Amino acid sequence: MTGTSKPSLRDHRSRAGGTAAESFDLTETRKGSDSSSPGSQPQGGQRDSTLKIVIVDESPIRAAILEDGLREAGFTQVQRIAETHNLLARVYAIDPDVILIDLESPSRDMLEQMFQMSRAVKRPVAMFVDQSDSASIQAAVDAGVSAYIVGGLKKERITSILDLCISRFNAFARLQGELDQAKDALADRKVIDRAKAVLMKVKKMSEEEAYAMLRKTAMNENKKIAEIAQSVLTAAEMFK
Amino acid sequence: MSAGKLRIGYIPLVDAAALIVAVDLGFTAAENLDIELVREVSWSNVRDKLNIGLFDAAHLLAPVSVSSSLGIGHVRVPIVVPFNLGLNGNAITLSPRLYSALSGLADGDIADPKVSALALARVVAERKTRNAEPLTFGMTFPFSHHNYQLRYWMAAGGVDPDEDVRLVVLPPPYMVESLTSGHVDGFCVGAPWNSVAVDAGIGRILHFGCEIQARMTEKVFGVRESWAIEHPDTLAAMIRALSAAANFAEAPENLAAVSTAIAGRLGVTPELVGRALTGNMKVAADGHLRLNGRYLNIGKNGAARPDPVQAAWIYAQIVRWGQAPLADESLKLAQAVFRPDLFDAAVGAPQPLGPDEPGDGIGAFIGPAFNPADIAGHLMYWRIKHPGRPRLSLVR
Q1: Which domains, from first to last, does chain B contain?
Q2: B49 touches chain A (CB under 8 A)
């Protein structure tokens, strides 16, 4: 896949001719980013802290979790963009090396415009351009994140960022799941309490007896207690 | 995954009609297909999930099926198109302010794209003389007919879309909001978004896409070439289901059922969907209507059968606007994406097209008849310096 896509990118570049000044030649871009960090360390070392990373995510909590993770890992130049207004202009102004974007954000299509010849400042490359590591691409998509990477960065340097991103996105999803579960449990609890109150009043039962009745019915009907409780409330509403 | 179980990605737009009707009104079930329609938020997601195999098939921008197969701007994944989800369906909408500016400078009926394109050139020139910000237009994706139709129209009047105005990608749901905020002065998008802007009183529909080009394959049903080869029977069943759904969707007596099914997936009113399906569009907030039976064709006028001429046209636009260099090999690959043979094998030989259909299969409002065997000639034509038509920067 890579083999077939890269020559075509090169074709664009050679054809672009007159726009060489803002060329997106992969090698030139690499030179550019290297010269901006003179005396660079061996790859994978200190130099990574100079990578400019932009996070585009409409979820402020998830973006914060990701930013924290990146900072802990030593990346100091991390910026978040939550607003999608003028997204491209803002991305150009920051001129990042890596852009991480939530796959659920419709603004992803705006970033695709960066691939257009007449616009590019530094030419970004979507993570998907290199399909040699399909497992990590799959993991990223499953986690709900995509990355755009300025050409010329070594793959290993990106992998660590992407792995971190995937794990933070997954952690966020787990937290979200637990939160939803807790909310559901709380809602169930309220329904059950109200159903118990109805039974206690109508059938002159104690709280324990009311709960035992709900539980027994649920077991007999192979349903959740909350579902039975909801039926009790619905019926009570109809008999009002 | 059983042979008949498919995951299909789509973007909530009226032009996904054949797909939505096929699934929601029982046409895929009748073919023993079990379809999961997955709503997506961006064309990039649809393309990538199709590419890496998370989707078996997708509702695709026709130009994406070509760019993906050629590996332009992205990883190369060969796609085949055995079924068109429809012809046309876009419209160009302007802010009321820009619309009245154009009207004021129009030399003739502004509903004629030749007239409006020249009027736009005058507005652009006038803005330059007073150093005003360039006009900004929204479109949905770099590889889309929204992009190409805007460019084709502007360039015809002498406006260079890369030099004289700004074109920005905007997800369809953001179009209306961006027009309201003044972030864009106009846009080209599919249904229902033009109508949403009109109803909100913040946009006026200037042209239907079919007034720019009479026949334009807008969205396609695309699958990976490798998938098509591995699942010929499932694919044929899917084409039959889509074809039956497309025919059903065109029958006037089914309008209510079809509009309701689509509206349910889009989260809008059936009335809004019905405007696009019937081509009877409210173009201005005052209720002014314009009827064009070509606005969006799903099952009629041979809309569903893939036509390699359309793929060649897409490739010509890709080259014209500098997204890829011209190469015979690429043209051949592009044309091979559209597969009338698969369509015919599944549903039988096509009806001949009616006498009103354009002879070149495109029917552009200006320019020579399109000849897919002579893309270079097509591009040459647009290089000629007509009076009031400056050199286009990307066509050298």
Answers
A1: 5-88+217-275+301-306+323-347 (3.40.190.10)
A2: yes
